[in-house]
Amino acid sequence: MSRLARPTNDRVIGGVCAALARRFGTSATTMRVIFLLSCLLPGPQFLLYIALWILLPSEDKAQPAW
C-alpha cells in the first residue's frame, strides 16, 4: 500500500488532489473536478482541503515506510 504524501510534481495548489488521486488510482484531473463539484454542495470541503494540505507530508520530506 502506498503512503499518502503530496507529490513534488503534478501540483496545482498544494498537491492534495494529486495525492488523493494517486492513492485511489485515478487521474489528478478527475480528482480536481470531483473536488470542484463537491464545493457546490454544502459542507467543509475547503477546510478539509486546507487541513490535508497542512497534515499530509510532502513527498520529498516523507519518510519511507520500511
TrEMBL record:
The regions listed as transmembrane in this protein's record are 33-56
Membrane topology field: Single-pass membrane protein
Listed under GO cellular component are: plasma membrane
Which compartment or compartments is the protein found in?
Answer: Cell membrane
| Residue span, Phage shock protein PspC N-terminal domain | 3-59
Q: Does the keyword Transmembrane helix apply?
A: yes
Q: Which Pfam families match?
A: PspC
Q: What is this protein called?
A: Phage-shock protein
